[in-house]
Amino acid sequence: MDKLNKKYVLLDRDGTIIVNKHYQKDPDDTELLPNAREGLEKLRNAGFGLVIITNQSGIGRGKLSRADLAAIHRRLIQELGGGDDFFDGIYYCPHVPEDDCYCRKPKPGLLELAAFDLGFAVPESYVVGDREIDVEVGEAVGASTILVRTGYGREVEEKGLADPDYVADDLLDTADWIIRREQWIESVTHVRRRE
Q1: Active site (catalytic) residues
Q2: Under a CB-based contact definition with an 8 Å cutoff, are residues 143 and 111 in contact?
Q3: What is the C-alpha to C-alpha distance for residues 3 and 118, in angstroms, rounded to an integer?
Q4: 115 Cβ contact list (under 8 Å, min separation 6)
Q5: Sheet with 8-11, edge to edge strand ranges
Q6: What is the pLDDT of residue 83?
Q7: What is the longest distance spanned by two Cα atoms in the chain?
Q8: What is the CA radius of gyration of the chain?
Q9: If DSSP states are collapsed to H, E and C, what string results for the chain?
Q10: For the whole prediction, is pTM greater than 0.85?
Q11: pLDDT tens by residue, 139-174
Q12: Which has the closest alpha carbon to 177: 52, 43, 44?
């Protein structure tokens, strides 16, 4: 996948990449979910851009600071064995739900900002998360959506709270599905070009 045609995977953080620790403040509490590293590496190696989009109302509630959040993200990247460029961007909403801001998922502000900054078409991207709001925000912008069964995902699936394009066991399963889907899209597109 060349840079011009680079596609992006927009990922929720808590319950999707790392274990959800309510209002996590300490970077030492950062714990990768099983197969998270392998799945993210597989996507990167296949040429996808990776972006985190996360609601962090703990900032608005005074439970943690922006510096605390930055330290958690540095630790996350260390745990993944990556450098500063492991993620193409990390976007977060610091507001509480009562603020009714445009950036808090399921509203699309974070996705739109990432697309503007990085120059990609949101409908050609993938949105991955463990909650119905992650699926809803992807649907709102026409992206492909994936619900992972980690975090709250299994409960969301069992209760029928979301209707994603795919339900994955974890991020490795997610990566496999995205890569297969892109290969299929490319093969269909290639056939159409030849006709």
Answers
A1: 12, 14
A2: yes
A3: 11
A4: 8, 121, 122, 125
A5: 89-93, 49-55, 8-11, 126-129, 144-148, 166-168
A6: 87
A7: 60
A8: 16
A9: CCHHHCCEEEECCECCCECCCCCCCCHHHCCECCCHHHHHHHHHHCCCEEEEEEECHHHHCCCCCHHHHHHHHHHHHHHCCCCCCCCCEEEEECCCHHHCCCCCCCCCHHHHHHHHHHCCCHHHCEEEECCHHHHHHHHHCCCEEEEECCCCHHHHHHHCCCCCCEEECCHHHHHHHHHHHHHHHHHHHHHHHHC
A10: yes
A11: 999 999 999 999 999 999 999 999 999 999 999 999
A12: 43
Query: Half-sphere exposure (CA, 13 Å, Cβ side) for 115?
Result: 18
Separation between Cα atoms, residue 169 and residue 129, nearest integer Å:
11
Give 91's strand partners.
Answer: 53
The dihedral region occupied by 163, where left means phi > 0, alpha psi between -120 and 50, and beta the remainder, is: beta
Q: CA–CA separation, 108 vs 195, rounded Å?
A: 37
Q: What would the two tokens of residue 103 be?
A: 């950036």
Q: Report residue 108 as tokens.
A: 């699309």
Structure tokens at 106: 């399921």
Per the structure block, which two tokens stand in for 58?
A: 């703990």
The separation between CA 97 and the C-alpha centre of its own chain, rounded to angstroms, equals 20
